[in-house]
């Protein structure tokens, strides 16, 4: 199935660069992303006795979560991602 034929989960923002959820799947993806980040910053540093290692691991996990969320969002956004100044 082509990407353009799938139901979009996100829509580009009206102003600026970014996207906003428009379906329950988009809201679920956003909630899972936010929960994953919160859990990462809450629990990941405690798994390491060395503060530097905990900080590096936390940053790496957060970067991975952000990358996955951005890729999923871009693939499920209707229209192109670009800077917007309101309605075209």
Written description of the protein model:
By secondary structure, this protein is mainly α. The protein is built from 2 helices and 4 strands. It is elongated. The relative contact order is 0.23. The protein has a domain at 21-79. It has helices at 24-43, 51-75; strands at residues 10-12, 15-16, 19-21, 84-85.
Q: Characteristics of this structure?
A:
88 residues; two-stranded antiparallel sheet; 11% strand; elongated
Entry summary:
The chain is mainly α. The protein has 2 helices and 4 strands. The chain has a domain at 21-79.
Tally of extended strands? 4
How many helices does DSSP assign?
2
Low-confidence stretches: none
Average the pLDDT over all residues and give the rounded result. 90
Find the structural class using helix and strand composition. mainly alpha
Q: What summary fits the major beta sheet? A: 2 strands, antiparallel
Q: Distance between the terminal alpha carbons, to the nearest Å?
A: 29 Å
For the largest sheet, list the strands in their spatial order: 1-3
Topology order in helix (H) and strand (E) letters: EEEHHE
- What Rg do the Cα atoms give? 16 Å
- State the helical fraction: 40-55%
